[in-house]
Structure formats: structure tokens, C-alpha cells
Amino acid sequence: MSEVEQTRQTLLDAFEQSPSLVLDLSAVESCDTAGLQVLLSTLKYSEIHDKKITVQGDNEVVHEAFSNAGEWNSVPSSRRKRRRSDMSKVIMTADDSTSMRQMVSFTLKQAGYDVVEAEDGVDALSKLTNDTIDMLITDLNMPNMNGLELIREVRSRKEYKFIPIVMLTTESESGKKLEGKKAGATGWIVKPFKPPQLVSVVKKVLK
User: Fold this and answer.
1) For residue 17, what are the contacts with CB-CB under 8 A and spacing of at least 6?
2) Element containing residue 203 per DSSP (H, E)
3) Alpha helix ranges (H) inside 49-97
């Protein structure tokens, strides 16, 4: 068994004992091809099998190694630190419906955007600490924190005070739309949506 395979097996064995792992990159002084293979395969494994990896320590050595290998975009978006200078616009979609999130995510990725998914308002806010976003698309009715509450919280943050926020919901009442506008929503799309319609709105507000 090669060194890469041994390291990978050690990580997989650790996953068997715990649903989560912590990777501390702060002390990494070099990152060769073997190291990239181990890190990539581990991150992808965690994404596929719903395991949680917490990456600690910002390390430009690792970032540079991924970039040089052309592998940066292979790292699952929820597991990597974002670098604004070398990527497309990042859009967060918050919806408690898994199928709806997947549909929105697929549509936007096909149009060339990077997507961060959140299952409700609380999840969205927690992910904003790790992901810098350019736009938010949120459902209205969600558990834990609904769309209006989420918008108010996002708008209260200095860095997100002016980003586009679009509500994607089954609600079509004018009163609800007014509530959304007062909370800080930029636009409103009624479900079910057509992919070209969503992409058109996104392109318009991100200009």
C-alpha cells in the first residue's frame, strides 16, 4: 500500500469512528501531488457520504498547490475558502425543500454561477461566516428562521447591506410582497419557476 493510500485509509478509518473530522491546515509547510490527492479524495468522500469536515487555518501554500494543479474547483464549495479574485459570482439559495434547492443550484451552476445551499435561515446565516456571497435567493416559509427574518439579519450585516436578495416562494399575495420589500428584498419570483426566468433575473440584478 502506497503512502497516499495509507493516509487515505487512516482518514476513512477515522470517519468510521466519528461523523466529523477537523483538518488544521495552518501548520502545512508544503503540499505535493500526493498531498493533493489525499485531501481531494477525503473532501469528496465527505461530500458524498454526508460526513462533516471542518477546515481550520488559512494556508496559501495549500491554496496555491490547488490552483497550480488546476484542481481548486474540484474541492466541494462548502469545504473550501473562497478567493474572490479567481471565481464566478457566488449565489446562496436558502430553501427547506431539498428538491427545490437542487433545482435552483443546478440551474445556476449551468449558467456559470457558484452556489451555496442552505436548508433554512439559521443554516444560511451560519454559512455566511465561511462563504462570501454576491446574491441571496431565499424561500419565505422555512422552519427555524423564515425568509423575512433571514433577509433582515443579512441586511443588518455591513458587507451584505446592498447585495441583491430575491425571494423565491409559492406566496403571491401583494401583502407578502410588500413585507418582503420592507425587509430588504430586491425582487420576488413565484414558484414554480422556469429556469430561463430565474437566470434572467439573476443576470439582471447582478449587473
Assistant:
1) none
2) helix 195-205
3) 60-68
Residue located via cell numbers 462533516: 52
- Cell for 82? 473562497
The per-residue pLDDT for range 31-62, each reduced to its tens digit, is 454 555 555 555 555 554 555 555 554 445 44
What is the pTM assigned to this prediction? 0.59
Alpha-carbon gap, residue 14 to 185, rounded angstroms: 44
Short-list 34, 130, 14, CA closest to 76: 130
Specify burial of residue 199 (Cβ count, 10 A radius: 0-12, 13-18, 19+).
middle
- Amino acid 194 reads K
106 by DSSP, 3-state: which?
Answer: helix
- List 24's β-bridge partners, or say none: 56
Q: How far apart are CA 39 and CA 41, in angstroms?
A: 6
Cβ neighbourhood burial of 179 (10 Å; 0-12, 13-18, 19+) = middle
Q: Who wins on pLDDT, 60 or 105? A: 105
Tell how strand 90-94 and strand 114-118 pair up: parallel
All residues at 6 or more sequence positions from 30 whose CB lies less than 8 Å from its CB, including other chains:
61
Q: What angle do CA 53, 138, 180 make, to 5 degrees?
A: 145
